[in-house]
Amino acid sequence: MTAATTAEIMSPERLRVAERAKRDPGGCLTALARLIDEAALRRAFDRVREDAAVGVDGVTKDEYGSNLEGHLQQLHERFRSQHYRHQPIRRVHIPKEAGKTRPIGVSAIEDKVVQGALCEVLELVYEPVFLDCSYGFRPGRSAHDALRAVNRMLYRGEATWIIEADIVSYFDSLDRAALKEMIRARVADESLVRLVGKCLHV
Fold first, then answer.
1. Spatial contact of 153 and 68, defined as CB atoms under 8 Å apart
2. 182 near 22, Cβ under 8 Å?
3. Deepest of 117, 123, 177, 188, by most Cβ within 10 A of its Cβ?
4. pTM of the model
């Protein structure tokens, strides 16, 4: 999320959550699911790439956006009444080196919207407690920032060894039950944990 986007989402309620998360890094936060409102879903839709791959339903971003307000109202109502269901993932294989391929899952546009809104809430909870040396999948940070940090450490003589590691098929082998328990240590909102579970299940 860019700084402008962060400022934009900081309603008084979201600001209270962010301040509580920073003030109490070991505490549990409640009533988080209600932060996923129509405005959050709209922001998430805006962040979906214009050329985003379509899911199993074949609906493009343009097609979903042709009746955006109606779609988001229906989506929010299904989410609020706990009738939202993540559609199946469309599995595609992308080429890698040596003639190998890597399978990836492509979500439907609507599910990408939900995932984006969920990510927005989880960032409020976790960003204040992440270490400054952490760069992966964080807003406003990239692999280039990590490389610059390593370069500074080497220049100052603060590092002697660099170890590169890659866990094979990490997300395929992830213990989803253990991950949900880790989330429960910080998130005391079962409806939000269930939403995470729906996204992980597919």
1. no
2. no
3. 117
4. 0.86
